[in-house]
Structure prediction request, 652 residues.
Amino acid sequence: MAKFEEGLRYSESHEYIRVEGEFGYIGISDYAQHALGNVVYVDMPEVDDEVTAGEEFGAVESVKAASDLISPVSGTVVEVNEALEDKPELLNEDAFANWIIKVQLSDPSELDNLMDKAAYEAFCAE
Amino acid sequence: MNRTLYGNLIFELSKKGRKGYSLPQDYDRTHTTAELPEALRRKEAARLPECDELTVVRHYTNLSHNNFGVNDGFYPLGSCTMKYNPVINEEIAGMKAFAGLHPLQPAVTCQGALEVYYNLQESLAELAGLSEFTLNPCAGAHGELTGLMVIRAYHESRGDVRTKVLIPDSAHGTNPASAAVCGLEVVEVKSNANGTVDLEDLERLVQLEGPNIAAMMMTNPNTLGIFEPRVLEITEMVHKAGGLMYYDGANLNALLGECRPGDMGFDVMHINLHKTFSTPHGGGGPGSGPVGVRKGLEQFLPTPRVKKVVVNYDLPEDGPTEWEGFIIDWGANNEELRTKNESNSDSDSSLFPPHPSLGSVGNFFGNFGVMLKAYTYILSLGSENIKQVGPLATLNANYIKERLRDSYLLPIKGLCKHEVVFDGLVDKSTGVTTMDVAKRLLDYGYHAPTIYFPLLFHESLMIEPTENESKETINAFIDVMHKIAEEAKTDPELVKTAPHNTPIGRVDDVLAAKQPVTTYWKAKTE
Prediction:
C-alpha cells in the first residue's frame, strides 16, 4: 500500500513539496510511483530554469507510461537530483527521500492551494 | 521444427568460413570499394554471420513461426482495430497491372489505376460525410500532421494567427505529438466522470483561449470506447470561437456505416486504412492515413491529386464523343515558394504569398498498394454490408464487457462502442496486475489486449474484438479471461511469472528500457 508522509504538501497530479525556509523540494508521491511502476527515466529541468505552478517541468517514464511532472509552485530551480540520472529507480525505492528538484519559491502563498497529508490521502482513496 | 537448434541467434549458428553463396571466378573483390575514398573503406571484414543456405532458411522459418498475427488467432489489441485482412485484398494489390506501375508514368497509360485512386477518394468522402480526400499521407500520425497543416494553412490564409489546439486528456498520444510537430500548442481538456469531454471545462477553455484556438482534436468514440453524446454542442462551441474540429479516425470502425464525422460537425479528419479498411498493420503494412476536409478547405489539401475530367472530342467517324478520364494535378511548384519564403523569413513574407495547397507531404501518391486493398474491401462489402461493420464491432465489445465485468473492474458503466476498457482485476488482493494478465493470455494462445492505455486508469486493459470474430472465438477468450482471474486468486505466482509456454518467458522490461543492447557483438563484449 502507498505511504503518505506528514508535513508535506501534495498536488492533485501527485507531486509533493517539502518546504524548508524559502526553498522547496519537489518530487512524486509514493502513490504516484506505485501507479507508475518501474521508473526507467526522469526528465529534469536545468538549474536556473523557471517553473510555474500548474505547468510541466519534466517527465517520469516508467515501463507502463510516460507522465508529465507538474510543478506545485512557481519559482527558480536551484538544484536537480542528479542521482536520478543514473538511478531513476530511486523513485521506486523511496519517493519521499528522493526529491527531483529543489526550487526557490517565488510565491509561498501558492502552498495554500495544495493538500495536506490527510486531504491527499482522501483524494487518492477516491 | 527444431527450435532448440535453429531458434538460436543467427550469429550463434555461424561457422567461420562457411558460405551460402559462390561468386564468379573472375570476380574482382577490390572492384566494389576501389572508387570509394580511403576514409570510407572498411579496414576489417564485417563480422557477418557465416552459414549455409539451409541453416539460414530453417533459422528464419523458425523465427516466422514465433510470430503471432490476426491469421494465427484472436488479436484484441484495443485502439488498433486488428481486423481480418481478406486474402482477396492481396490478390488485387498483387496484380501485375497495379504492382508494375511507376508513379511517373504518363496518366494516359494508367487510367485504370487513377480511376481506382479517384474512386477511393470519393468513397471515403461519402463514408465520412466530407467533401474531398487526399490519399497521400502514409500513416495515421502522418495524416494527423497533414490535417493540422491544412487547418493552419486555412487560418493563415485568412490572416488569422491561431496557435492553440484543444485535446481531451483521454486522447491518443499522437494527437498532442502531431500538434507539437505542427508548431501548435496543446491545451488539455478534462474528462468528466463518464469519461467523455467535460463541457464545463471546455467552455472555460474556450472563454480563456477563444481567438487563439486553431482547432480541437477528438476521437469519437473516445479512447474509452464511449460515444461523445454531446459532440454537436462541442463542435458548435469550438466553431463559434473560430476554431476547426479535427476528427481522429482511429476509432472510426465503431461508426462505419452508422454515422459520419462530417455530420457531427467535424471539418478535417484522417482515416487509418490499416484499421477501418482491413489493410495489414506493421510488418504486412505499410499504413495509410487519408485526410478528408469539408467543403471550403479542399484547396489546402496536398498534391499530387487525382481528378476526373470529361473531354469532348469531335471524331471524324463517330462525331462528337464524350471521354471521361483521370488526370494528375501535380500542384504548383510549392517547394520553390516555400524555400523563398523561408529565406525571406525576416522580411515581409507577403511578398511571396504561398500557394494554398500544402504541396507534397510524402512520396508521390502515398502507399498505392494499401489503397488497392482498402478499395477492394469497400467493394467486397458493398454499401449494404459496410453498414454492419460498426454495429457488429459494437455488439462484440459489449458482449465481452457484460460477460467479463464480474472478474474485471469496469470503471465506466453503460454502453460502449467498438472497444471496452477495464481497470484491472476486480480482486487485486494478490497483487496480480494488468501486465500479468496480459502475459498469461499469451500462454493460452491469445494476443494480449492493449494495456496501460488510456492513462485515465492505473490498470487499463483495453479490448477491441472487431466485427470479424465468431461467437465461439469470443466465448473461448472470455472463458480464458475468467480462468486467469481465478488463477490470480488461487495461484498468483503462476500469473505473475507468466508466460510459461512461449519461446521466450517473461522479459525484463526495466533492463530493456534502461540498457537496450541492440547488437549481438555489443552484447558479447559487455
Chain B touches chain A at residues 435, 452-453, 455, 458, 509-510, 513-514 (CB under 8 Å).
